[in-house]
Every structure is written in C-alpha cells, then in structure tokens.
DNA sequence: CTACAAGATCAATATTAGCCACATTCCTCT
DNA sequence: AGAGGAATGTGGCTAATATTGATCTTGTAG
C-alpha cells in the first residue's frame, strides 16, 4: 500500500526545508540520504498533504523598522460563540497582531503585537483593541528582546 | 547617492515575499508595480542588507504531529551576566523552545514550547528546564489552539 | 516465488534566475 | 532651465534547476 504517514526521512526533509527552503532537490537529497528524484516526489507529497503550508521569506524585525513585540493577554466578558467569533475576526483583520493563541487558565487569549515604537502601540490599543466589545480586561507585557525565534519545529525522531 | 532606506516598494516586496517566497521575479514585479529586473535587484539588496534573513518552509504544526504549544514564563534567581548567558545557551540548544523573549515586569523570560503531547512536555520540564541552575520559578500556560500565526510583519505605510 | 512499494538513474523539456548593456524617466540641486 | 545621478524598462543570452516520464533495481511481505 502507499505510504501515508511521516517517516524519518520526511522529518529530515521538513527540518532542512524549515531551515532553508532554497536548497535544490539535489542538495536536499544529499542531506536526507536520497537522490534528487525521489526527494522531489516526497516534497511534493508533503505539500499536497498540507504538511508544508507554503514557503515564505523571513524578515528581520528590527531591520524592517518594527523592533517592538508586546504580549497581550485578554479576558473576554463571556465566552459565547458570538463573542469568540467577533474576536477571531478582528484578530485576523489586524496585521499588528502577529500571533494569537486561545489559552487555558484565567486569561482567554494571548497575543503578540508587533509595532515600530511605543506610541504606535498606544495607538493600536486605543483605536482598536480597547474598542472591541466584549473584552473584559487587557494586560500588556513588553519584550526587551528576542532571544530566539525558530522557524524549525522540534521534529524529534522516535 | 545610492538609496539605502526601505521605501514603499520595498515594503510591498517584503509583504509579498513573506506571504509567498515562490513568486517569480516577474510576478513579484507585477504586484509591486515594477518590471522584473529592478525588482530582482531590490530583492538582492534587501537580502544583502540582512532585512531578508532567509527563506523557509512553513510546516503545519498539527499535521506534523506537534499540536501542543505551551507558554512558559521564567524568573531567574539573579540577572547576572553568567546566569543570562547560561540560560540563553540552553534556549538555543533545545529545539522544543521555539520562541524566547526577554521580558519586562516580574517575569524574566517568556518561552513558547512545542511538543507532541502533555507527557512530552512533562519530560521536557523534568529533564531539561527544571534542571537548569539559576531558575527561580516556572509558570506554564497551555494553548488550546492557534487562532492566528502570521508570517507577515505589519508593514504599515507611512 | 511473486507482487509491490520505493529508490536510482537517465533523458528531454521548459522555466527561471542571473547578467549585462543600453536607452529612458524621474528627481534634485545648482 | 539645465546638468547629473539614481533608478527603471527592455531585450538578449547563458546556466542552473525543476519537472516529467521511462526503465531498472532492491527490499520486503504475502
């Protein structure tokens, strides 16, 4: 039967491509111990299966003039369907919100906001976040620096 | 003199490449209103300046078998040089730590850990994090789901 | 032993990047 | 207004690479 789960070679492929998506199929093959053509086939299968969602450029936050990351945890007044949907819609719409997680515990959401400076954050807060209905509380924590920002998921072999 | 700062076209380029790095220079040019050759030149300049740090594949966390994100905030006993260095070294070494920020406020670091399930997180905690010297306290918050995970920085035109 | 899945190898084709040269446009400074 | 410089537009050429398809080999499970 045709293989369908992710094996060790696939994991190596994913690690390599998460580090550098510009490798040629030949270089890729060498890294994972395959020749170019089966290697290309596996990559295409991973793309088709949606394991690889796409290929993107990684931009330096500071050099792009956006050095500030702010973490914001948010509590909603109610967790009704309508509330959650409206919140999710706003999150998707606002580009300053780079990451958003639904959390366990006292706080409902954890966001990471990227801005060029603190005044920009203040504007974002005042004009967008605080105007959202259904938000009970907002708590901001500022990042002084990025110690690590990995593009590679921990694909441990088992 | 040769241009050196990022202008509106560069911003458009960066946005496009952060969405899809596989666009040909021609398609890219069409998006930003340039023909292929100056477009390619600008991209090369952005790469050389380090604004574009690289190109990577984006992998679906769940489909790759790593559905769990845990946020961990950490407080060190002291913030001496030596302590910070050791911590940074460990963070860089452990692939489960995907993101790490140095924070203001009561907590020193905020980490995002990616694992395949809760037992794996427990193992990570017991065998790695809690064994690090100089760590005063660890506080874990679990993510129930990813609402947004953007690869595009908010390049607002000004 | 057979069947099948996956890999290796090879060939043919087409797309694309990377260069380079040259003309043109746009902007700024004097 | 005029000069100079920076950046773009166009075209042409070459080399690298992806893509596809065919054929053969290998390892393995039934």
UniProtKB/TrEMBL annotation, chains A, B:
GO BP, one annotated term: response to amino acid
SMART domains referenced in this protein's UniProt entry, alphabetically: HTH_ASNC
Residues in HTH asnC-type domain copies: 6-67
GO cellular component, one term: cytosol
GO terms of molecular function: sequence-specific DNA binding
InterPro entries reported in the protein's UniProt record: AsnC-type_HTH_dom, Dimeric_a/b-barrel, Tscrpt_reg_AsnC-like, Tscrpt_reg_AsnC/Lrp_C, Tscrpt_reg_HTH_AsnC-type_CS, WH-like_DNA-bd_sf, WH_DNA-bd_sf
Keywords: DNA-binding, Transcription, Transcription regulation
Protein name (database record): AsnC family transcriptional regulator
Organism: Mesorhizobium alhagi CCNWXJ12-2
Lineage summary: Bacteria, Pseudomonadati, Pseudomonadota, Alphaproteobacteria, Hyphomicrobiales
């Amino acid at each position: 039967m045709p293989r369908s789960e992710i094996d060790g070679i696939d994991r190596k492929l994913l690690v390599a491509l998460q580090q550098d998506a510009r490798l040629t199929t030949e270089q890729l093959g060498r890294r994972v111990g395959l020749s170019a053509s089966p290697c290309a086939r596996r990559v295409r299968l991973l793309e088709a299966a949606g394991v690889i969602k796409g290929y993107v450029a990684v931009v330096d936050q500071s050099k792009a003039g956006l050095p500030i990351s702010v973490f914001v945890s948010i509590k909603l007044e109610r967790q009704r369907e309508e509330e959650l949907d409206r919140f999710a819609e706003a999150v998707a719409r606002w580009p300053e919100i780079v990451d958003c997680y639904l959390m366990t515990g006292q706080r409902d959401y954890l966001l990471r906001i990227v801005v060029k400076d603190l005044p920009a954050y203040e504007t974002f807060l005042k004009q967008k976040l605080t105007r959202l209905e259904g938000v009970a509380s907002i708590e901001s924590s500022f990042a002084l620096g990025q110690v690590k920002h990995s593009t590679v998921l921990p694909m441990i072999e088992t």
